[in-house]
Amino acid sequence: MSSTDRQSLKPLVYLTRIEKFCSAHRLNSRALDVQTNSQTYGKCNAVHGHNYTAEITLKGTVDAITGMVLDIAVLNEIIAQTVMKSLDHKNIDEDVPYFRDNDIVSTAENISVYIWKVIAERLPPNVTLDSIKLHETDKNVFVFRGEYA
Ligand SMILES: [Zn+2]
Prior knowledge:
This protein has 149 residues and is of the alpha+beta class. It contains six helices and five strands.
């Protein structure tokens, strides 16, 4: 890349916002019978809770005038109105229509996908979502990058 190219292009920067929320859930698939649910999910087939940590990473070009990818206050408001409002101090299986109405099991995998969906649709055009990293416990961490296979 020549110095001329660098001058005409804007730097692409990744920005991560970390938020914590507390939710109750149970792992239970309506497609499985009681015994199979118990065998599949073990202790997690009963209602219990987690203190989740979500790392929401965006990428975008740095605005030449503001010097920012996205105003953190704007990002914070998007997260507050989506992730925090729908998940914090909620029973995910009963209170979140995405899970309740679509028979989606509230695994950390599916919660990561849910967070992606609700954030991605609210971002301004110069910014895209890079990844959702969800810590369900200190030992279990899940990453969704918007990929389907
Ligand atoms: Zn759990």
